[in-house]
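S1.2 Input.
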Amino acid sequence: MRIDLHTHSHRSDGTDSPTELVRNAAQAGLDVVALTDHDATTGWQEALAAGDGLDVVVVPGIEISTTFQGESVHLLGYGFDPDHPPLVEELHRVLDGRDQRLPRILARLAEHGIEITEADVALQSGSAAASGRPHVADAMVAKGYIGHRDEAFQGWLNSRGKAYVGRYAAPLLETIRLLKAAGGSAVVAHPWSRGSDRVLTSAAFEELAAAGLDGIEADHVDHDDWSRRGLRDIARGLDLVVTGSSDYHGTGKSSAFHLGANLTDPAEYERLLGH
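S1.3 Output.
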């Protein structure tokens, strides 16, 4: 059984519709795929319907923007009640934070001669729950300022970029508790990449496990062999599930993030669903 537990559709910053994503998952030979759009669950029903027609098990999920000890950490959630009021309220705060920073990002780009309007970004975000940095990057590509989304993050939109603007992110420990209260499972996404390795130490994972964390995404394109071994050791010591996934975004990321790039062991998948 081939299981990929981290993918994105155009309901956040991927380029496939939920239906296209599930169809591509079937073509990639996946038996199970989780739709984990950023901070939103709006693609669930479409993806589930597509899975029924293609004999692919679709796991409803999410990737929530959180913060821990001053660093950005992404948290994957699976199988929770999307209408659980406290969780819905927190996700609204996160999405509002994305929308509210957009004018400030565009103003900073304009200071450097890059003229992008909110309408330009809206053309790229389409069905997404909120407009984010990847959509700004796509607008920059569409207007001819850069050649690929990655260029925008390298020089403009990453945390050290000329046009970077911070936004609200949910507290990690509280978000784990919210997911658990909503009947779901919680897994830290790509924990030793993108700066989160500075705070996600062994001791930190003990704290997260005490709050209800279920697993660690160890097998990810951003993790080298040393990181994967270290994260597995931590997971083993805390009896946490180990997952693997692609973090697929369609054409929004390089081909290294192709569907099935990393997989979750079926026994670990069963453990995750049992939490």
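S1.4 Remarks. The two ends are 20 Å apart (CA to CA).
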